[in-house]
Here is the input.
Amino acid sequence: MRSLASWLEFIERQHPKTIALGLERVADVLGRLDAALRCPVITVAGTNGKGSTCAMLESILAAAGYRTALYTSPHLRRYNERVRIGAREADDAALCEAFAAVEEARGPNALTYFEYGTLAALWLFAREKIEAAVLEVGLGGRLDAVNAVDPDCAVLTSVGIDHIDYLGGTRESIGREKAGVFRAGRPAVVAEPDPPDSVLSAPGEKLFLQKDFGYLAEAGQWSYWGPGGKRSGLAHPALRGAIQLRNAAAALCALGALSERLPIAMQDVRRGLAEVVLPGRFQVLPGRPLVILDVAHNVEAAKTLAGNLADSGFATETIAVCGMLRDKDIAGVLRELAPRIDRWHLASLPGPRGASAGELASHVGNGKDVHQYASATEAFAAAKMRARESDKIVVFGSFLTVGETMAWLNNNKTSTH
Here is the structure.
């Protein structure tokens, strides 16, 4: 029997393109796979905030006693992170069985890595007694494999410029793609505060931030209003950063819109928000120097990270460990963070999409304290060695950069405290 590693190696080779948008292949295989979900489905799209919103939805639903399914991407360290059943990662054996089922059903279709993964997750979910499913869109929405499933409620967290080769270079075109997960006659939560016309004109029973639902930050707590009523005196979510209140409000709005099928008590909301965990989203590690991990890789996310750094307390120096993919707006991301960074440790990322440290350095500007490394782990190890206890190290730019750093930290536990 194939191991999970060999399955992943196999599915990576089955389509000539890493990304090939379109629903025809997935719909064809899905029709033969017997993978229909018989529970409420919430699909989450958006440029940023998808992962956090999905994590909060899963945590609140699990706190309320529902058996949940969660499908997300990409992963940081293990593929298993992408597929969660009953708030736990699927094990290797289950994933291997699911990949085998997809392989048997795919016929002549050449599936991408993401399509294989999506179909495998749906096959697993259909075989478990799932009471609520949360699906995170991989890229865009309209033509993403996840959109082969009709959601009972859709969530759009934000619309920013990213993946322009696939979604277009304007907020209008990107909004059109992302709102492609909306369904006529079904609730669609729009947490983007300035939605483009393409989102406003999309189908669905749309619920808009500050019109149909909203939130208010108060001293040490916050309140929500929207479908399902008002919830006051809420503790801030366990995920850090002011933007998480918007993501939490979007999650509560979606649950409120489905309250007849998925009733949630106030205590479950409190517990779910208090216990939510999502690595790599302004994740502050214990110990000194302060280490912050953030997968920010587009301009909108970089702005949020810069704001969170400004609010995160004094440091003698803030050291950046950054590696990025070449198809991102490298100049825009680095420009947003430059005012907050004293020293740069730039890393080359592997693969054809990985940018070299030299490419990143060309966007940092002259006169900056810049160091170049062959990998994210080398860049982080050097930053850690040079940092004083009063310094702050922020690791960002890509899931790859954060994932490699997490692996280094795990292998060097004795030297991180």
